[in-house]
Amino acid sequence: MNSSHHKKMQKLLSAYRNRLLTYKAELEWEWLAVNEDDRRFENIMSIAHRLNGSGKVYGFAELSQLANELEQACETARHLLLTDSTSIISGPLRALLNVLERDSSTEDEERLTNNFPIYTTCERDIAETIDILLIDDDPDFSANLTEVLTQYGYCIHYQEDIHQLNQAIAQYEPLALIVDMDFSGQRFAGANQVRTWHQKDGAPLPVFFISGHDSFDLRLASVRAGGTHFLRKPIDIPKLLSLLHSELRLAPSDPYRVMLVDDDSDLLSLYGSLLVEAGYKVTSATNAQDALSLLDHSHPELILIDVYMPGCNGIELGKIIRQHEEFATIPLLFMSAEADTDMQLACARLANDEFINKPIELWRLLMVVKSRVTKGRYFRTHSSSLTVAETQVSQDPLTALPMLSKLRLDIDDALKNQNPDIITAVIKIDIRDFHSINNLHGHYFGDDILQRLAWELAQCINTGDTLYRQSGDEFMLLTNSYGSQAAIAHYIKSLVKAIEDIHITSSQGTIALSVDIGVAFASQSISSAGELLDNADTAVFKSKKSILPSVCYFDQSMKEVQKKRFFLGHAIKEGLASNQFLAAYQPIFTVNEGKMVGVEALARWMHPDRGILGPGEFIPLMEEQGLISLLTERMLTQSLSQFAVWQSKHPELFLSLNLSARDIQKPLFLNILASLLSSYHLDSERIVLEITESLLLSDWQHTRYLLRKLKDLGVRLALDDFGTGYSSLSYLQRIDAAKLKIDQSFIRHWTHTGDARLLKTMIQLGKTMNMMVIAEGVEHNTELDFLSQLGCDEYQGFLTAKPMLADELERTQWV
Known about the structure:
The protein is built from 31 helices and 27 strands. By secondary structure, it is an alpha/beta fold. A hairpin with a 3-residue loop joins β19 and β20. The longest helix has 30 residues, at about 5-30.
């Protein structure tokens, strides 16, 4: 970083730090006036949103985190009474005010400039000495390449022995590496050595792998070693020069034009300064009107737009830009620290635009801007207009497989040239429970599995077929090799077997993979790649609903199911808005005395046309559409207010409520729960939150946070449906649950078979781990008697009482 830019960064940091006291004063003023005007909450939320986006970028990570927590608290408070709202907000607000006070007096001028590597800060001038390390065991080839690159101003340092890689990097401090793949007959020696160096050092140097051959396994080895590019010998010199020029950030002769639109002047100043120093021509605007007026003069090649802006938000601005024919093809990149923007982002994606979460680290900003403007200019140079396929990345950097953009092109080509004797099919492959692998073993381990899966599948597909990686744990296969659906079905079985034969060993044991597969066949009625891909998506969606991994073939009836789900989703949203969802309560009894000791709150939908609907009608769709957290909030608010009435008469009772996976990942309910416990003066130990063991163990990172917060509140935890998922005794000990609920399937198994081994084991395990054991779904006296013999503590079921609304529960004198 040059001295002038360093001083500029210090000046920006100093100005931002001085404004922190202003933010603190504004927050304190709004908080003092909140009782007079509850709209002050919106102002507090707006300030928190701004600090969330800018704090971490300026080097104040804790400030960003606390601002984010305050913003989420404000979002929750919108739905509560004023007294409840203030209690929820006061804690996060006080914490943020303290940090604002502290950080405003911090004298560390280097916190901003130390946030990113020195050579990612600005573009270089070609006149500087640019050191390149070339490692190849062919001296003639190396001498020739060295001579060529030297003519273009590069300083080449040559090393023949790949095992001297680390020493050469330390000696010459190169800005890029050019490494041969094979050395002295040792296949992949170059890639293996680079991979070892990356794992130990991790320095962000561009690595150009070269080889006299080109194959999938070579490219995969390059990707696994962290290679930036792969070039085949004889080297295409113009291409190498272009890539070096790009990777080393040499200033372009015609600067790329970027527009920034954000109402946060702190971020505009910082981002603008950084991009200007990096060689970009930057235009900035703080609102939609100014941005539109500047478009004619600046002709940007990329527009970065903040989603959360007053007056006209970022999504609306993007749509306005899209309506102007002369601006319709400018790439848009949306930025926001807002967590719940799913609907708005869906609108953005319809226009093939992209989204990046704030706070955006400075090195990431440079990376995303560069990748988009260079790609956009290339295609505008080589084509009269941009298409969806042209503006998307065509190769997956993790697996070296072609991606969705290439698949669309290949499908369109196949549809135009269909052979009546050959069936064209798209096969979508989804790894079951892959998120659990990532959560329990880490994303690096998960990436290794994806690479292994790509390799194994590539080895067993037909020569004329193509494998693609869509995203995450999803792969696509386009096949044009068979004349019958039966032959394709047999082909898919071989693919499934190849996947199931993959066994990966980790520190926690062996992992076996299983997959859900959706298949869609091309027909004369299908005219586009999008339609065929939608059909494959629909098929795999149904496959994933099966208890066991399965293969599902698309048919038109699935579209009808989708249609019903669409209308059901709308009805659920209307039901939430009009308070149609109510809590029903099922009593819980002691097994030996038959004494009522608690109730479980269960959601019911008072549908205006269909009457009372059970959770199976709406819970799955709520979870998929992200509405389940709203239902959790409604159930907490209803049931705890009702429980306060009952507990005054029956202080020994406890109340159980269910949590979902979304509640673990984003436990916004915690603030509401804390507020309700305080407002109604409830004994927190009488509140039991139920969640399945599978959800707890599959998302352990969020689980630990949730458990810590629940312990602070004093509420208890129950493991629901115990034994139906995978169990890990080491993790169960860490969870430290107070209650264990045995799924009714174990009781049914004993009833129908007389085999009590599983049931006994579950109860004994609960007792061993000092948990109260509750059996659910008890319907017969014989079952209750047997549970008593086994030492089960409590039960619930239709044998004694069904779930009832509050007035019915009181009318039948249970409470």
